[in-house]
Amino acid sequence: MASEDQLITEYFMMFDSNGNSTIEAKELKTLLKVVYKQNPDDAMVQQFLQDFDADESGTIDLEEFKKMYRAMPIKPEGESLKDLFTLYDKDGNKDLSLEEVKSFLRDLGDNSSDDLVRKLMDEVDVDRDGRVDFREFCIMYGRTVYGDAY
């Protein structure tokens, strides 16, 4: 079983979509949607930044994120997203192909064309390998479940 610090670090890395070791406003908005099931507006995101951005950098670093996580009254159900990812990772290679993403979207009631699915994958494919890993899946999940246009 992972320690609380390890779990928090994993959440942080999931939502640091550009890999710059900080959570920026856009990433924070996605995190609040996916993990905490909030539908934050820009004012809510700015309030979180104001409350937890101790160094006033305009972003949340890992230590600030740990404080934010511990202050949240509801803790995320981290395994549920991981289990969902594993369910669609049919070949078990720890990333999702176009067909696996399409299967996920179909189950959400979205019968998008291959072109639209590729566009969504391109938007979340941070490492540009043409596939969707778990961190990218979390971002994609937020976009599809919460209705962000792609």
Write a concise keyword list for the protein shown above:
150 residues, mainly alpha, elongated
Number of helices: 8
User: Structural class of the secondary structure composition?
Assistant: mainly alpha
Distance between the termini: 36 Å
Q: Rg, please?
A: 15 Å
Give the overall shape. elongated
Helix content estimate: 55-70%
Strand content range: under 5%
Write the H/E string, N to C: HHHHHHHH
Can you give the mean pLDDT? Answer: 82
Low-confidence stretches: none
Biggest sheet descriptor: none
SS elements, strand count: 0
Structure report:
Residues 3-38, 40-75, 76-111, 112-147 form the EF-hand domain. The chain has 8 helices and no strands. With 150 residues, the protein is mainly α. The chain is elongated, with a radius of gyration of 15 Å. The model has no long low-confidence stretch (mean pLDDT 82).
